[in-house]
Design brief:
By secondary structure, the chain is an alpha/beta fold. It contains 15 helices and seven strands. The chain folds into three domains: 4-108, ATPase, nucleotide binding domain (Nucleotidyltransferase, domain 5), CATH 3.30.420; 122-215; 219-355, no CATH class.
Length: 358
């Protein structure tokens, strides 16, 4: 196979199968014929592609792909990222790295392919803060559940809620020595120390995320949407940037997995439960935002945001859990419009709003 320097003008599309230390490269000409098939080390990729004229380069959206995509775009190439599940149908035969790279080269040339926007370093930093915070919250939940389980084994039940356990645990350890052994007291005290350490780290990360959100104009605009605060707004900006990869808010809601799964054939249309596709973390946050609007804001604030007639009509025909999902989808579509159009959320009442169905 000739070296890349000898292929100037022949390569139209390149597929890169990313590894930790080695990268498998497959190049195709405009007719789809294979003209490049090589294995490069990490240090060779940028140097060798710098010698090629600008071309279309495809990669799966995985660890390290955003960094490499930015580097290749700086060299003048049209680097694009794709979800791995959309590349898989183009793979032929048994799996190996070269066939994966060839499938990537095939997929990136399809006009209907859905691409992933390349994240900036600031987006990746913000996303890392959310990933670490999510992991710490999960660990704290595990510790709390373990403490409750140990207490229940001794016949001690504590009211549901994090704050109630935090308040009652010191008193239980001090007064219920008749049913809790000294060894178990020591174990629960150690778990309580771990709990406090996690609280401190979570509070620190939350404060940093809130500070960054208030400094970002996109996050500030998103926070004008009901139920959306610094955590959700910053997570959304970290995930999709300005939302240019979606043509409309409906596509963003579908990407979050907040729409029903569709199984249709012939004249039959069957809608199931929500698809739960895409970003699980962001989907959970939007569902929590919907519950905040339904429970904490209440009807007195629905009118101000233009949601009262829609929510009241939906409540008459939907289960409260289904209503929360529907509202989460609505909030996600509103948030995308705010982010993509670059203006804050404002409810402008018209005569048509009163007659609009839910």
């Amino acid at each position: 196979m000739p070296c890349p320097r000898q292929l100037n003008g022949k390569i139209a599309a390149i597929g890169i199968d990313i590894g930790k230390n080695s990268f498998h490269i497959v190049g195709q000409d405009r007719r789809g014929a294979l003209v490049l098939r090589q294995k490069w080390s990490r240090g060779q990729v940028e140097a060798r592609l710098a010698n090629l004229p600008p071309c279309l380069i495809g990669m799966e959206a995985c660890t390290g792909a955003h960094h490499l995509s930015r580097k290749l775009q700086a060299l003048g190439h049209d680097a694009r990222l794709m979800p791995a599940k959309y590349v898989r149908p183009y793979s032929k035969g048994d799996k190996n790295d070269y066939r994966d790279a060839e499938a990537i080269a095939e997929a990136v040339q399809r006009p209907t392919m859905k691409f992933v926007a390349t994240k900036t370093s600031d987006q990746l930093d913000l996303q890392a803060l959310h990933r670490v915070r999510e992991r710490l919250v999960s660990q704290r939940t595990g510790i709390i559940n373990q403490i409750r389980a140990f207490l229940l084994e001794r016949g001690i039940a504590v009211r549901q809620g994090l704050r109630f356990l935090r308040i009652e645990l010191p008193g239980i350890l001090a007064s219920r020595t008749d049913v809790i052994s000294h060894r178990m007291v020591r174990i629960l005290e150690d778990l309580s120390v771990d709990w406090r350490c996690l609280d401190t780290r979570i509070e620190g990360l939350t404060s940093e995320i809130e500070m960054l959100a208030h400094q970002d104009q996109h996050c500030e605009r998103l926070m004008t949407v009901p139920g959306i605060g610094p955590i959700i707004s910053s997570a959304m900006v970290a995930a999709i940037g300005t939302g240019d990869v979606f043509s409309k808010g409906r596509d963003f809601g579908a990407w979050l997995g907040l729409v029903p799964k569709q199984i249709s054939t012939g004249d039959r249309t069957i809608l199931g439960s929500i698809s739960k596709r895409g970003n699980r973390y962001l989907r959970v946050l939007f569902v929590q935002a919907a519950w905040v609007v339904l429970v904490k804001l209440g009807p007195e604030h629905w009118e101000r945001y233009g949601l009262k007639s829609w929510i009241e009509a939906a409540k008459r025909r939907l289960h409260h859990n289904v209503l929360a999902i529907a509202l989460a989808n609505k909030l996600a579509r509103i948030a995308w419009a705010v982010l993509n159009k670059g203006r804050a959320f404002a409810c402008i009442k018209t005569d048509a709003m009163a007659s609009r169905p839910a």
